[in-house]
Design brief:
CATH superfamily of the largest domain in chain B: Pyruvate-ferredoxin oxidoreductase, PFOR, domain III
Order of helices and strands of chain A: HEHEHEHHEHEHEHHE
Shape of chain A: globular
Radius of gyration of chain B: 26 Å
Strand content of chain B: 15-25%
CATH topology of chain A: Rossmann fold
CATH architecture of the largest domain in chain B: 3-Layer(aba) Sandwich
Strand content of chain A: 5-15%
Number of domains of chain B: 4
Oligomer: heterodimer
Strand order of the largest sheet of chain A: 2-1-3-4-6-5-7
CATH superfamily of chain A: Thiamin diphosphate (ThDP)-binding fold, Pyr/PP domains
Helix content of chain B: 25-40%
Number of helices of chain B: 18
Chain lengths: 282, 584
């Protein structure tokens, strides 16, 4: 989002805490999502964004509570439609920095269609998905990224369904920047968010964000993640090949494309509305 | 209607109705549009509707026109002339083309017999060898021959027809001369038809005339109201509204985005409006159903947005190309929870402009979603109308100023409206939320916050002064009977009531433009002293009738005239019902 990053002006120096609100999160102690708030605040500070020029947009779910925890403008909409709301906001207000946040259920299940089309449309905004492979807010149901044999009340003995592959979908659908981060490494995540916001077009970060309440085994993720495993490339075939040997815990920037971001097409003018009457007058 | 076989010249009529029909590619729509424009250039008012077969392209089609000396808002009971280039599948339009003994059916003898369904009406037949006549002119086409013949039967002046043909073909000079020659051939051949349907001389034009559809009018009204962002998904019969707006919006500095579905459309529009840009989407019933959850968000988060629902026959896919007023229930009652919002209905083609503009103003002023219930008839009918009067753009969104101390986005105010912070404004950052919230906007599950916010959201709608636009109140104000209707029923009801009035039936007419919040006090006042109320609407379950009776005490004996859609009411149908009603 190079257009909205202040480079020339000298705004007041802000630290990460200046980007957080005084609203107390509803999350469980140890929730991975705290790390995303910290990383997002750090990234905003490094980008020297004015909080008033940033909008954090979300849908529904534990992680979708983030907008209220930031000091910027926030939009906490309905389940699955965060990308649509963020798209409308950014297209109507290109001067704003728009960051869309949410979880794996919000983004990959109920909002799956919007994810595909946000990637294709390539509007200049950043989408951060906190993936904990479970519906936490409704207390422990399988999500699209849940392992097929994960036992739950709603799906005893597991769903038997293969996991949704967010990076594969993002890459094949046209996202212009694709990365994976881990909430256990807020500095590394902040760095990814900073790059994502700077990169023109639709930037997608899949964040491994453990749910310590319903998926306590995810506490082991810190041992599984592989920092800097991806080497950023602008070459689609290279990124595709790299995904073939993705462990699911490989971190870093997978793809950094150079597709032009969405812009309105066709002739534009600055007519007064009343000039349009000529089309009707006999 | 005058007798077509009359030997003496028939008396000129104030209104003449004709149908041009034929198979795909015959060009009847082109000829119909030219006839409409020729009538407009000659100084007449007119209305054209169209019907086509289910084929995506190339199917049979019918252009139905009514040309008149006075503004027209509906079709007549019967058509004077049905003229077909050929008869392939034209019988499928039978129900839409009522004919009578005074009607004339014109066909090309080389294209076979007119279908029996048309002749059973007792209509007179006439032959016109359209294709042969077309061949007599190099590059001539049968539809242009038909245009010339019809213009002659109606007494439209040559120069008006020529102007209409030039308007369409002006950019294709190679087609212009053959078309004008074919028109002349048709005009000459009409001399052999033993019938005439001359129009009375048009009244002097008192204002500029416009030619437009209801969908175009709604699009322009939206722009006049300030809409600069539209997100939408194509759907019949709303698509033309979006196709008109797409380039128009770009020319006034706005943007239209084609969304992946209606869920995205409405959420994009709400997102854009949250950003401070007045926003709209347009759809039809199936799309409105998908948008309902998001409209609840717009209520709770107090974000203005306008949805134009160009209603079609439902439920489900229904009949996408036909009109019905069946979405009133979902528009008024569809949202979950207690969710006050606005529902408005234009009642004529030109009123689509003012009512959509008003809807934008109200949505913006009241920070609430507004649903505009247009319908397929109003949306797709093309009319020659007086230039609609401008309405003042008085009200606007209350916006909070930078640095407002102690800013509370959802402050509980006397009139319920709380100034809105627009992203980019320093010191006012808040989170717009569908979660119930305290005045600051922070989520709250406290009953007291819920009560306070519910009250303010209702209060802002009920305390607003909507002015005189809430309804068109007309007819005999002293009558002890009243008709209440809305939307596209208004045209045939006005005309049916005028005829009934000539028979001595006295009644007031209230055409509701503001359906929610229902201005119950104004409605009851308009019906003061009435002993009989008749509610007229076009749906199968009397949705307006039930809604009105639930919202206010209508005086006297209240009855309903309701019929499902696909076919519009005719003025005659209303007239007959009013005569029966007047005896109750």
């Amino acid at each position: 989002m190079s257009t909205t990053v202040s480079e020339a002006a000298a705004p007041p120096m802000r630290g990460p805490n200046d980007y957080k609100s005084d609203v107390k999160p509803v999350w469980c102690p140890g929730c991975g999502d705290f790390g995303v708030v910290n990383a997002l605040a750090k990234a905003m500070a490094k980008l020297a964004l004015e909080p008033k020029d940033v909008a954090v947009v979300s849908g529904i779910g534990c992680s979708s509570r983030i907008p209220a925890y930031m000091a910027s403008y926030g939009f906490h909409g309905i389940h699955g439609r965060a990308l649509a709301a963020g798209t409308g906001l950014k297209v109507a207000r290109p001067d704003l920095t728009v960051v869309v946040t949410g979880g794996d259920g919000d983004g990959y299940s109920i909002g799956g269609n919007h994810f595909l089309h946000a990637c294709r449309r390539n509007v200049d905004m950043t989408y951060i998905v906190m993936d904990n492979r479970v519906y936490g807010m409704t207390k422990g149901q399988p999500s699209p990224t849940t392992e097929p044999d994960w036992d739950s009340k709603l799906s005893p003995d597991g769903t038997g369904l293969r996991e949704f592959q967010p990076l594969v979908i993002a890459l094949t659908s046209g996202a212009n920047f694709i990365a994976r981060g881990f909430t256990g490494d807020p500095n590394g995540l902040a760095d990814l968010i900073e790059q994502a916001v700077r990169h023109p077009g639709f930037s997608f970060i899949e964040v491994l964000s453990p749910c310590v309440t319903f998926r306590p085994e995810q506490k082991e993720w810190k041992k599984l993640v592989k920092p800097d495993a991806f080497k950023a490339t602008a070459e689609m075939p290279r990124a595709v090949r790299r995904l073939l040997r993705d462990t699911g815990f490989d971190l870093g920037v997978l793809y950094c494309g150079n597709r032009a971001p969405y812009a309105p097409r066709g002739p534009r003018a600055s007519l007064a509305p009343s000039d349009l009457e000529a089309r009707f007058a006999l | 209607m005058q007798q077509p076989d009359s030997n003496t010249a028939p008396a000129p009529a104030g209104s003449v109705s004709v149908v041009l029909a034929g198979s795909g590619g015959a060009g009847v729509m082109t000829a119909g549009n030219m006839l409409l424009e020729a009538a407009a250039f000659a100084g007449y008012y007119a209305l054209m509707t169209r019907s086509s077969g289910p084929q995506i392209r190339g199917g049979e089609a019918a252009a139905m026109l009514r040309i008149a000396c006075q503004p027209v808002e509906c079709m007549e009971d019967q058509f004077h002339v049905l003229a077909a280039v050929d008869w392939e599948n034209v019988q499928r339009f039978n129900a839409e083309i009522p004919l009578g003994t005074a009607s004339l059916v014109i066909g090309d003898p080389d294209q076979g017999e007119p279908p029996d369904v048309f002749l059973r009406s007792g209509a007179t037949r006439a032959s016109l060898p359209l294709k042969k006549l077309a061949k007599s002119v190099p590059e001539g086409r049968a539809n242009m021959v038909l245009l010339g013949a019809l213009a002659a039967l109606l007494g439209l002046p040559d120069e008006s027809v020529a102007r209409a043909v030039e308007k369409t073909l002006g950019k294709r000079p190679a087609a212009l001369a053959p078309s004008l020659a074919a028109v002349a051939a048709g005009r000459a051949a009409a001399a052999g038809i033993p019938a005439r349907f001359p129009l009375a001389p048009p009244p002097p034009a008192s204002s500029q005339r416009w030619l437009l559809t209801g969908n175009e009018a709604a699009g322009y009204g939206a722009i006049k109201g300030g809409v600069r962002f539209v997100a939408a998904y194509p759907i019949t019969p709303a698509t033309e509204l979006l196709e008109w707006m797409s380039p128009a919006l770009a020319q006034v500095g706005g943007t239209l985005l084609q969304a992946e579905d209606e869920l995205a459309s409405i959420n994009m529009a709400i997102g854009g409006s949250y950003g401070g840009v007045p926003a709209l989407t347009a759809t039809s019933g199936p799309g409105l159903a998908l948008m309902i959850e998001a409209l609840g968000l717009a209520v709770a988060a107090e974000i203005p947005v306008v949805v134009v629902d160009v209603m079609r026959v439902g439920p489900s896919t229904g009949i996408p190309t036909k009109s019905e007023q069946g979405d009133l229930n979902i528009a008024v009652h569809g949202l979950h929870g207690d969710a006050p919002h606005l529902v408005l209905a234009p009642n004529s083609v030109p009123d689509c402009l003012a009512t959509t503009q008003w809807a934008v103003q109200l949505a913006e002023s009241l920070q609430a979603p507004a649903i505009v219930l247009s319908d397929q008839f109003l949306g797709q009918a093309r009319g020659v109308v007086d230039r609609p009067a401008d309405i003042a753009n008085g009200a606007a969104r209350a916006v909070a100023e930078a640095g407002t101390p102690g800013f509370r986005r959802y402050a509980v105010t006397a009139n319920g409206v709380s100034p809105m912070a627009i992203p980019g404004t320093a010191g006012l950052a808040y989170t717009a939320d569908g979660l119930e919230h305290a005045e600051r906007g922070t989520p709250s599950s406290q009953a007291a916050d819920h009560f306070a916010q519910l009250d303010k959201r209702r209060r802002k709608l009920t305390a607003w002064h909507y002015g005189e636009r809430w309804a068109d109140v007309e007819g005999d104000r002293d009558a002890d009977r009243a008709i209440v209707t809305f939307g596209s029923c208004t045209g045939p009801v006005r005309e049916g009531l005028a005829r009934a009035a000539a028979d001595g039936v006295k009644a007031r007419l209230v055409s509701l433009r503001l359906l929610a919040p229902l201005p119950a006090n104004q409605l009851v006042a308009a019906l003061d002293g009435v002993r009989r109320v008749l509610v007229i609407e076009q749906n199968h379950s009397a949705q307006l009738f039930r809604y009105l009776r639930g919202e206010c005490d209508l005086p006297g004996r209240v009855t309903s005239l309701h019929r499902a859609g696909a076919l519009q009411y005719s003025p005659g149908e209303i007239h007959r019902h009013l005569i029966d009603w007047s005896r109750t």
